[in-house]
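User: When convenient, might I ask for sequence and structure tokens for a protein?

AI:
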Amino acid sequence: MITIIITSFHEEKTIKKCINSILSQKIKEAYELLLIAPDDETLNAGKKVSSKVKILKDPGVGKFEALNIGFKKAKGRLLILCDGDTYFENDISIQRIIDAFNHNEDLGIISGKVESTNSKNNLLGYWSHLLVNAANLERKKRQRRNQFIVCSGYLIGLRKGIINKLPTDLLSEDAYMSHYVWSKGYDTGYVENAIIKVKYPTNYKDWIKQKRRSAGGYHQLSLYFKKNPRMRTPLLEIIKGPFYALSYAKNIKELFWSLLLFPARIHLWTLTYNDKLKKKSFNKIWQRVESTK
């Protein structure tokens, strides 16, 4: 059996599309579908979609606790994790993740391919496409070399039993899970034809909110993993970022937008280092991003 876990928070407007895209998947073995959210609006909306959806309420303290509930309740040998504001591009995505596990007993965690639903005809939309393209290219390269991969939290496959409980106040659960699984001697992986569609922020304030918590989560990794390799650091961005950003541009306008991303990333990393120095709490850093809903 497979367990599919949707973690969500006030996503009653998007949860139906997410669930229907899962129900339309061609999965070759039995599965259960868990919807975990702290708010009744999302849970009630999910319940109306199908009787196959099992509803679980979390205390609303963070995604880490919702996942802990899912880990405890899951019956499947494999866990498929996604968010309530995403949906699957095709009907083979989940089966492709399952196939990857079936063909590699050493595989502990795997990432699907993230694609942006935003228009590329504006600055923030262009950035979303550029950044997911860079991340996907990096994961493909690392997959070929059998190197460590940080999986995307938008779509993760996880072998049950490796992680039973996440620490509290995690800003980047996907980074922690990837590093934890690797530290236990398992492989990390990437499946390019397992595609999840994601809406990204449409204004700079929300862009900073979202990136601040994910980038801030990388600073937390040093608390748990001293010797693990890193896929993402400010230094790696300085080394690799210019190539990914400038080569992605197809015209003068896009080149200009690519160049604007450099000061934005400097702004972002400066904020995260400031958060670290001031030891800001989880509640002050983690803020809901409305424009992605």
Summary: Residues 38 and 59 are 6 Å apart (CA to CA). The first strand starts at residue 2 and ends at 7. The mean pLDDT is 91.
